[in-house]
Amino acid sequence: MKIVSTIAETRAAVRAAKAAGKTVGFVPTMGALHAGHISLVRAAKARCDYVAVSIFVNPTQFGPSEDLARYPRTFDADCEKLISEKVNLLFAPSVEEMYPAGASTLVIAEGISERLDGHSRPGHFRGVTTVVAKLFHILDPNVAFFGQKDAAQAAIIQRMVRDLAFPVDIVVCPIVRESDGLALSSRNVYLSAAERKQALVLSRTLREVETRWRAGERDSARLIEIARRVLLSEPEVRLDYIEIVDPASLEAIANISQPALVAVAAFVGSTRLIDNLLLG
Ligand code: PAF
Predict the structure, then answer these.
(1) What is the pLDDT of residues 33-42, one digit of tens each?
(2) Is 58 in the pocket of ligand 1 (CB under 6 A)?
(3) Distance of alpha carbon 203 from alpha carbon 210, whole angstroms
(4) Ligand 1 site, residue 29, Cβ cutoff 6 A
(5) What mean pLDDT comes out for the span 31-56?
(6) For ligand 1, atom 1: residue with the closest CA
(7) Whose CA is nearest to atom 6 of ligand 1?
(8) Which of 126, 164, 181, 223 is least crowded, fewest Cβ atoms below 10 Å from its Cβ?
(9) 186-279 belongs to which homologous superfamily?
């Protein structure tokens, strides 16, 4: 695996791969790699001849009171994992490389970026679209891979790609869960043993919604009420939001007659976790 930290080296490596007729798959990450990321890498390996991964903890997608400083950084372990997956290129830039002094250009998907996590974390998706647009320019991938765990992020990236005609296919890969249902997340490392147990209420809540939906309930307000009750049965968990929305526009759906995304965010201790489920 070639490890590079500059835009120039990355462009040269990708250009050479493309000149050799290879299709380029790209997996953007913030590191602290777990089996969820590895599933994206494997999807990229299965579909593309040349796979590039980026590790960049992007400061512009963290709010002032969020966990940028303590976000897990496990670069050496990440490299080992990527080497054993036979990744071709790792782009691990510095903040200065990605944001030159005075950088002031933003990419914003208006409206949609204020929904779900965008509502609770103002400016978060503006940071995501800005950095992903820049990564796409640098790596020029044919296909890019994102996780369904960040369903709102995936929808917003797809909107950006469509609106700005980026020549890249977006593939969204399924959520990877622990055997007890906990969705994998780099932030799970913050959880104490007790909190980890409490965190299971997120996937339990989603399963209960799915059961009621399978039994014929189509009214979002009633499903959300049921979900709230399950979630609040865990007293140490603080609900941020639970919503039922259109998976592409992220707009609320009152009655479920089309595919719907049930998305939940909650604080377990000081750790904010998200999870979701697609109905239909
Ligand atoms: O999902 C993530 O890890 C990040 O939001 C991403 C897409 C790498 C952008 O920083």
Answers:
(1) 999 999 999 9
(2) yes
(3) 10
(4) yes
(5) 98
(6) 29
(7) 29
(8) 164
(9) Pantoate-beta-alanine ligase, C-terminal domain (3.30.1300.10)
